[in-house]
Design a protein that fits this description.
Length: about 180
């Protein structure tokens, strides 16, 4: 175990959840609230990246979640989901980074189950998904590997960007794990 790491922090590492959002004010409020109610014994943060929404998303986020210690808000012009995710990844403080789409409400144990995919799988696991395949809806990565491969390819505007990223990490020799984490 690395110096300064306790058993508890190794089992429950700091996690960052990146939620890119575009024009889903009502649904996003429910998603972020659900993120705040996750049952995870470790520390985590929620990074919401507003990708140029024009439906009042920015105002809702600032009103409902602005100033919360666990929630960090970012507001961008409309640049696409890959740039939004990369903004969150660059700002992430966690050892593990998880994606959650702006219209998906996870089960309360979602984060704990996703983290277990890494802790039980060992250091050779680089990608964990909780929702069939390499989908961006519920995928986690080791932050150091995201930094190493440069995050998402921003030439993708939307669709299959998550598969591309997972393959880049697996090309480095890291494995993939799927867990039951709805």
């Amino acid at each position: 175990m690395p110096k300064g790491t306790t058993k508890a922090s190794a089992e429950h590492p700091f996690a960052s959840i990146v939620v890119p959002a575009y024009n889903n004010r009502v649904g996003l409020q429910k998603v972020v609230q659900a993120m705040l109610e996750l049952e995870y014994p470790g520390q985590y943060e929620v990074l919401v990246v507003n990708d140029g929404s024009t439906d009042g998303t920015r105002e809702m986020l600032e009103r409902e979640f602005g100033g919360m210690e666990r929630v960090r808000l970012f507001h961008l012009p409309r640049l696409g989901v890959c740039r939004a995710r990369n903004t969150g990844i660059r700002a992430a403080k966690g050892e593990l980074v998880f994606n959650m789409d702006h219209d998906c409400i996870p089960a309360r144990n979602w984060l704990a189950r996703m983290v277990e995919g890494f802790t039980e799988g060992g250091p050779q696991v680089g990608v964990v998904t909780g929702y069939g395949g390499y989908g961006g809806t519920s995928t986690g990565f080791r932050k150091k590997l995201l930094d190493q491969v440069g995050g998402y390819d921003e030439e993708y505007f939307y669709y299959r960007e998550d598969t591309d990223l997972a393959f880049k990490i697996m090309d480095l020799g890291y494995g993939f794990r799927q867990v039951d984490a709805p």
